[in-house]
Amino acid sequence: MNRPIGIIDSGIGGLTVASEIMRQLPKEPIVYIGDSARCPYGPRPVEEVRAFTWQMIGRLLHEGVKMIVIACNTATAVVLEEARAQLDIPVVGVIRPGAISAIQVSENRHVAVIGTIGTIASNAYTMALHSIDENVTVESLACPLFVPLVEQGTIKGPEAEAVVRESLAPLQGAGFDTLILGCTHYPLLKPVIEACLPGVTVISSGEETAREVSSLLFYHSMNEQHQAKATHRFYTTGEANQFKQLAASWLNIHTDSVASIHLDGPLPVQATMKSK
User: Fold this and answer.
1) Looking at residue 165, what DSSP letter applies?
2) Whole-structure pTM value
3) Residue of higher predicted confidence among 266 and 240
4) Which residues belong to the active site?
5) Mind listing the pLDDT tens digit for each residue in 41-87?
């Protein structure tokens, strides 16, 4: 099925998921939207996150996508279930895949989650982890300084190290052996985070999310089988050249197809809603 997979995020962090999908599914075209102009989503009210997320979904539906990946933990917590209920195409979030991966690797059944204020306040990871293993112990910590750090391009060096070390200080000595990066921006800080938490396995949801996407495409007979090489499109509400440079330098994603767009109002999505 020669229709793209749609991926949305509050900014550039969802590229960590997009790159893994591109690696695992090289024939599948992708349309990516990053809302960098209104990033971060974590401190925003729930209704604002909902409105912004539906604006991005509307744009993806306008692009004719066959599946949507909400590659933003805050948006996943707020919109995933209602999007699944209202849309006729599969919708994948990043929270449950990350929880599954953490449960698989944790040896002492003690897991920590770091994320935005909105994601941590939603309790979504704790619920997802307990739905898999009700006896797992969960530590949760909001790290609101991480997303602005990544969006401005500071992912290593003394400033990044100082912010990460200070932010993670409340978790020191808590006894967990596995840490979930509960925001798709955070994997770009993974080396710094790992240096602050020696002996802890650090999990990002990109690989597991890509596997779920692959499984759903196969299940629904929607996988692309004939295309030799996929063509991807990237949109940002921020500055296109900065997006392109960060994608290339951080994740080795090289593309000329990056455009700046505005998402001031919702696009009509009724045509793709499930019939009641």
Assistant:
1) H
2) 0.89
3) 240
4) 72, 183
5) 999 999 999 999 999 999 999 999 999 999 999 999 999 999 999 99
Check pLDDT > 50 for residue 221.
Answer: yes
Above 70 in pLDDT, residue 116? Answer: yes
For residue 7, give both structure tokens.
Answer: 């991926």
Q: Output the CA angle 56-39-168, nearest 5 degrees.
A: 130
Structure tokens at 51: 């409105």
The alpha-carbon radius of gyration of the chain (Å, integer) is 18
Q: What pLDDT does 153 receive?
A: 87
Domains of the chain by range and CATH?
A: 5-93+207-272 (3.40.50.1860), 95-205 (3.40.50.1860)
pLDDT of 195-213, one tens digit each?
999 999 999 988 889 999 9
Where would I find the H helices in the chain? Answer: 15-24, 46-62, 73-86, 95-105, 117-122, 124-132, 146-151, 158-168, 190-196, 206-219, 240-251
3-state SS, residue 133: coil
pLDDT at 208: 87
- Please give the pLDDT value at position 268: 45
CB 128 within 8 A of CB 96: yes
Single out the residue of 258, 111, 250 nearest to residue 184, CA to CA.
250
If we measure between CA atoms, which residue out of 136, 137, 155 comes closest to residue 145?
A: 155
**Burial bucket for residue 196 (CB in 10 Å: 0-12, 13-18, 19+):** middle
92: CB partners within 8 A, 6+ apart? 67, 68, 69, 70, 209, 212, 213, 216
- Quote the distance between the C-alpha of residue 50 and its chain's center: 15
Burial classification of residue 23, based on how many CB atoms lie within 10 Å of its CB (0-12 exposed, 13-18 middle, 19 or more buried): exposed
Q: How far is Cα 236 from Cα 260, in angstroms, rounded to an integer?
A: 5
Task: Map tokens 């991480």 to a residue.
Answer: 146
